[in-house]
Design a protein that fits this description.
This protein is an alpha+beta fold. It is built from eleven helices and 36 strands. The radius of gyration is 24 Å and the shape is globular.
Length: 604
């Protein structure tokens, strides 16, 4: 690992634990080259900024592959191990081009000359590294997919106004899987398999012919030459499950695993088995599924969350694991830690407790952390996750741990719209966007107060991205409920946000709300924080990236101007990045500002 620019052990003396958690060196699960498995690519914050690193396992050598002021995390390793691809945008705006550099090091070069800058919409690389399938999205063109062969001009093989993306390229390069939403439902994709010239081979669409909205996803082609099996995910039984689809014959082999939660899968390198990831009630576990015998064998992992996993050629499994109390580590079933970056150790936090609360749409799962030995009522932070198609889990998070260190209880809520609790729970928020989630938040708030955990006079509502949106909406629609609001990269003015955001998010908003602001103005108005800004009573803190394409700055400025007109108590922090920062010092600065704002307005 490159020498860290962060503080060493001596510098860390006296540093609070919450800051150490942000500064402690972290690594992602390494991606490895299919035909050169000793070559790997991972992300680390070793220099104080999240960047891509090349790792030669045979020699142990590691080197920093990218170095940009605002960091780099979007990258891929070619299957032959020769090239590192990385996405080059401008200061976090997510609009740019793919570049590549030799694995051993060398100058960066445009990976696909002839393609103009765009938002990325998937990437698949051939085994010899000479062919790429590149997905692109722009406001003017919608989604396009190009086949790019080295030394030739890229050729467009797919185009549609609605959102789509590259799923995978078959092992021999003869088939291309695409996820698309041509039917206009951005939450439930259909699948199409193309030849390299763009002609269709097969189609699978679970949105047709039924009353339910069902989605599909590409999990990967079988890693065997000439094998036309495609591993996909489906929702036919109300949750995500895998099946094997032979795109040549049309045969579908449904695994029908007897597991209660969402199930994902990926191939073992020889194509004989699947690595199964099962998520249930905010925890996860791994299994090996033998395709010949149907035998499902549990792979031992500690209680908590596996947030990344891969099967290696020797049959071992590497996985990124953590719990709310224990920091993340890349482990292997062959024993030990796969990557252990040098530098200060990340301090642990406290374990998470589960609460199940009856709500208007069913039982709501909340995750509770509180200072060790503390008894209520406590000042309490309601930290709402982004997405909305995401969920909080029993995994390590430096932000909530920082609040706990300051004496707060932290409650995270997997409200309707969250993944991990079945398709109906995820899809429930349509048309009454934001308002449905906040009904669940209100139910958990009432439980937290009545149980004696939370002090009703010292409740903070906070979140980032969609969680920031819900924060501002909650402050306006539930003004008596919250003492302080802290919104990070939020949607604040839904109509302006729609017109300014990247095209893929416009498609998602049309799906969620049933149309554009011009087609369903009453729904956008009902779901927009700007509609309720005059009712806000709590002090409001907002942080925003000036280059953010997801929650653009103009719509935040519109909301802030309304606060200013009213003379409402508020503070705004703008920073030069996109939808969040990859710079450790910047992240620490933001958390410090948020905690200081709460301290000044809550006391203590």
């Amino acid at each position: 690992m490159s020498e860290s620019k962060g503080p060493g052990a001596a510098d860390a003396a006296g540093m609070p634990d919450w800051e150490k958690r942000f500064r402690a060196p972290r690594v992602s699960l390494p991606d490895w080259a299919e035909d050169a498995p000793d070559r790997s690519l991972f992300v680390s914050n070793a220099t104080g900024t999240y960047e891509l690193y090349a790792w030669d396992r045979a020699t142990g050598g590691q080197r920093q592959a990218t170095d940009r002021p605002n960091g780099t995390t979007d990258g891929a390793l070619s299957p032959d191990g020769a090239w590192i691809w990385w996405f080059d945008d401008k200061d976090g705006d997510e609009f740019g081009i793919w570049r590549r550099q030799p694995f051993e090091g060398g100058a960066d070069e445009p990976a696909v000359p002839g393609l103009d800058p765009s938002y990325p919409a998937g990437l698949a690389l051939s085994r010899d590294g000479r062919t790429a399938v590149v997905g692109r999205s722009t406001d003017d063109e919608g989604t396009t997919i190009h086949l790019a062969r080295e030394g030739e001009d890229p050729v467009e093989i797919y185009r549609h106004r609605e959102s789509a993306g590259v799923g995978d390229l078959s092992h021999d390069g003869s088939l291309i899987a695409v996820e698309h939403t041509e039917h206009g439902d951005a939450m439930h994709a259909a699948l199409r398999v193309l030849r390299p010239d763009g002609t269709p081979v097969a189609e699978l669409d679970d949105t047709k012919g039924g009353t339910e909205e069902l989605g599909l996803e590409v999990l990967g082609f079988a890693p065997v030459d000439g094998d036309t099996r495609l591993l996909i995910g489906h929702q036919r039984r109300g949750r995500w499950e895998p099946l094997v689809w032979d795109v040549a014959t049309g045969e579908e082999s449904d695994l029908a695993l007897d597991l209660p939660g969402d199930v994902g899968a990926e191939w073992y390198p020889d194509g004989s088995a699947l690595l199964i990831a099962h998520g249930f009630e905010a925890r996860s576990e791994l299994f090996r599924y033998d395709l010949a015998t149907g035998e499902l064998t549990r792979i031992p992992t500690p209680p908590g969350t596996v947030s990344g996993h891969t099967a290696r050629p020797d049959g071992s499994v590497e996985y990124l694991w953590s719990s709310a109390a224990e920091p993340p580590a890349v482990r292997s079933t062959s024993g030990g830690i796969v990557l252990d970056p040098p530098g200060m150790a990340c301090p642990p936090s406290v374990r998470v407790e589960d609460a199940w609360v009856e709500g208007p749409g069913g039982r709501i799962h909340a995750l509770i952390q509180k200072p060790a030995g503390a008894s209520g009522p406590l000042p309490t932070v309601f930290d709402l996750h982004g997405g909305p198609t995401w969920h909080d889990s029993d995994s390590f998070a430096a932000g909530p741990a920082a609040w706990v260190d300051q004496g707060y209880a932290v409650i995270r809520i997997n409200y309707r719209g969250s993944t991990g609790y079945g398709r109906a729970w995820t899809d429930a928020l349509k048309h009454r966007v934001g308002l449905i989630e906040l009904e669940d938040v209100a139910a958990v708030r009432d439980w937290a107060v009545s149980s004696g955990l939370a002090d009703p006079a010292r409740l903070i509502l906070t979140g980032a991205s969609w969680g920031g949106y819900l924060t501002l909406l909650g402050l306006g629609t539930q003004p008596e409920a919250w003492a302080v609001g802290i919104a990070v990269v939020p949607v604040a003015d839904y109509v302006t946000a729609y017109h300014d955001e990247m095209e893929a998010l416009k498609a998602m908003d049309r799906t969620l709300l049933g149309g554009t602001p011009e087609e369903v103005p009453e729904r956008f108005e009902a779901s927009s924080p700007l509609t309720y800004v005059d009712a806000v009573k709590a002090p409001v803190y907002i942080s925003a990236g000036v280059n953010d394409p997801r929650c653009p700055i103009r719509q935040i400025d519109n909301y802030v101007k309304r606060l200013e007109t009213r003379g409402a108590t508020h503070e705004v922090y703008r920073y030069d990045a996109g939808h969040g920062s990859l710079v450790v010092d910047e992240r620490i600065k933001q958390v410090r500002l948020e905690m200081d704002f709460a301290r000044r307005h809550l006391g203590g």
